[in-house]
C-alpha cells in the first residue's frame, strides 16, 4: 500500500467506498476487502450504510488503529442544531469514538462555506474526528475553506477518472498541501470497457480498471474503489505491483473530454471550474 501525506495525515492511497451498497452487500463484501488488504473505508451519512459498515468491520475483527475511516456530513445537517448530533449518530453507527476523516459532502447553496467550515471545525475541536476535509468543492470554495478553517483541510474528495480533466483543481490543491481523493474512478462502468485502457493493461497483465486506479495513484491522488462483488475486490487492490510509464500516463490524460463529468446534482453541485479539454 502507498500512503498520501497531507497536513500531518497519512492516508492509505487506495480506499474502499460503499456508495450504492445495501447493508447486505456491505456485510458481504467488507470482509473480502479487509482480506485483500483494504484499510481505508469511505462512507457517508446519505449512503445509509454506516451501521452496516460498522458492524461488518467489528464482526471481521478489524483493528481500529489500522483503519482509516471516513464519513461525510449530509447537507441537510448543515445547521448548528443538527450538525454535531448527526456526527454523533454517525459515530454510534460506525461503532467508533471518532472517525479519521470527516468531510462536508457537497457545498450546496443554502449555507455559506464559512458557516459549514465553522461547524466542521467545532466538531474537530471536540476530537470526534482526527482530520477534516471537503468534497465536491471548486477551486474558489476550496480556497475559502482553507482560509477560514482553523484545522487544516486535508483533502477535497471529487470526481476523477480518465475522462475528466481535473488539472486546475489538482494544481490548486497541491499548492495548498491538500490531497485530492478521487471518486467515480470507473466512470460509471465506462473505464473497464475502454479499448485504450484495455490495451495499456495488456502490457502489464492488468485490467482497464486496474490501469485507471493505478493512473489515479500515480497522479498522487487517493483513489476510492467500490465494488459490491467480493470476486472483484482483489483485482481492485492489485495495483501496487506495476508502474505506468510516462507515455502511458500521458496517453490516459488525452482521454479527457468536455462532457466527461458524470456527477453534478442540481442544488448540490457548485459552478465547476473550466475544464482544459
Ligand atoms: N463525495 C462524493 O460525492 C462521492 C460521490 C460518489 C462516490 N463517492 C465515493 O467514491 C467511492 C467509489 O466511487 P463509485 O462508487 O462511484 O464508483 P466506482 O469506483 O467508479 O465504481 C463504479 C462501478 O464500477 C464497477 N466496478 C468496480 N470495480 C470494477 C472492476 N474491477 N471491473 C469492472 N467493474 C468494476 C462497480 O460495480 P460492481 O459493484 O457491480 O462491481 C461499481 O458499481 C464510493 O463508493 C464512495 O465512497 C463519493
Q: Shape from CA axes?
A: globular
Structural class computed from helices and strand pairing: alpha/beta
Rounded mean pLDDT score: 97
CATH class membership:
Alpha Beta
The sequence of SSEs as H and E is EEEHEHEHEHEHEHEHHEHH
Which parts are unreliable, with pLDDT below 50 for 5 consecutive residues or more? none
Strand order of the largest sheet: 3-4-5-6-7-8-9-10
Profile the largest sheet.
Answer: 8 strands, parallel, barrel
Protein architecture, described:
By secondary structure, the chain is α/β, with parallel strands linked by helices. It has one domain (8-253): TIM Barrel (Alpha-Beta Barrel). Helices cover 38% and strands 18% of the residues. It contains ten helices and ten strands. The strands form two sheets. An eight-stranded parallel β-barrel has the order 3-4-5-6-7-8-9-10, surrounded by five helices. Strands 1-2 form a two-stranded antiparallel ribbon. Helix 6 (167-175) links the parallel strand 8 and strand 9 (179-183). The longest helix is centred in the N-terminal third of the chain and has 14 residues, at 23-36. Bound molecules: NADP nicotinamide-adenine-dinucleotide phosphate. NADP nicotinamide-adenine-dinucleotide phosphate (NAP) is lined by residues 17-20, 42, 105, 135-136, 157, 183-186, 188-189, 192, 207, 209, 224-229, 232, 235-236, 263.
Question: Which keywords apply here?
Answer:
alpha/beta, eight-stranded parallel β-barrel, 10 helices, 10 strands, globular
